Amino acid sequence: MKKLKKITVGIITASLLAAPFAQDTTFAATKQNENAKVSIQKGPKDKSGWDRSSLSFIGENLTCYGVSASIKNGEDSRDMQGEVAYEVYYSEKGNPKGGEVVATGVVHALESAETQELTYTPDQLVAGNYMFKAYQSSNHPGKGVLWSESITVTEEFAGNEPIELERPLDQFFNSEVTNGSATFTVPEEMDPIEISFTSYTYPEGTVLGEDGKPYEGQTSFDNITDVYGPGTYTIEIDLPEGDWQIDLYVGSEIEILTECGHPIHKIIDADYSAKQN
């Protein structure tokens, strides 16, 4: 078995916070550019060389896995004749405009009245303030840049637990979850780690969707939370009558789920009644 480095659930250091940003910036820029559309020249420019497009941010959002902002080419504007860049700024406190760039990407050549959702989805979303900055088409008569509103991520939402685990977590723990039973292995030379196994019941009248959705409103029916050292474990919990979902995850019990379910960096494995049918 491959020897693992000592893994400790402890206090987050500045270096741990900085590392995801360095990786995410490169990834986001590469991914956005790989998916960039080929622009088609659709309209004349004016004498200044401006294509008569005009962008504006029309909304910001805190998603299950990151932050996003919607950008729109004005309804009275001409089609963009080329792509422009955007950046994501982050500051632990205060105005993100004075912070650091954590990701870059591309706004596609939007047609008149067309919108695009700009996203920043790191492996682990760190608490603090985020803001999107985009550039207008060249020779725009305005300032040439525009900023979204600030998006604040709290410690509670970010789930900032200093856990250095290899993803995907179901493979890391070699887990199997089905019908109220969970089997998993904590690797050798890993410090003891808190793990919870919970069964959830859906609100009355819920129509089940894919992957056990909707998550919002699910409440804990039975739970086991314990600290596990290296070794293999099998644990069991009771299931409610009717539809259910069971989740194996890192940390203490989460009694009520939001629309996001469990934080992506905590969930190990899951099963749900619709999957058994």
Summed up:
It is built from four helices and 15 strands.
Helical segment tally?
4
Mean pLDDT: 82
- Under CATH, the topology of the largest domain can be stated as Immunoglobulin-like
What string, H for helix and E for strand, traces the elements in order?
HEEEEEEEEHHEEEEEEEH
Tell me the number of structural domains: 2
Give the fraction of residues assigned to helices: 10-25%
Poorly predicted residue ranges: 1-43
Number of strands: 15
Tertiary shape: elongated
* Gap from first CA to last CA: 37 Å
What does this structure look like?
The protein has 4 helices and 15 strands. By secondary structure, it is mainly beta. It folds into 2 domains: 14-158, Sandwich (Immunoglobulin-like), CATH 2.60.40.10; 169-276, Immunoglobulin-like (Sandwich), CATH 2.60.40. The strands form 4 sheets. Strands 3, 4, 6, 7 and 8 form a 5-stranded antiparallel β-sheet that branches. Strands 12-11-14-15 form a 4-stranded antiparallel β-sheet. Strands 1-2-5 form a 3-stranded antiparallel β-sheet, with no helix packed on it. Strand 3 and strand 4 (100-107) form a beta hairpin. The longest helix is centred in the first third of the chain and has 21 residues, at 14-34. The two termini are 37 Å apart.
Write the layout of secondary structure elements.
Blueprint: H1 14-34, E1 55-62, E2 67-73, E3 84-91, E4 100-107, E5 115-120, E6 128-135, E7 145-147, E8 151-153, H2 155-158, H3 169-172, E9 176-178, E10 181-186, E11 193-201, E12 219-228, E13 231-236, E14 244-250, E15 267-272, H4 273-276
Antiparallel strand pairs: 1-2, 2-5, 3-4, 3-6, 6-7, 6-8, 9-10, 10-13, 11-12, 11-14, 14-15
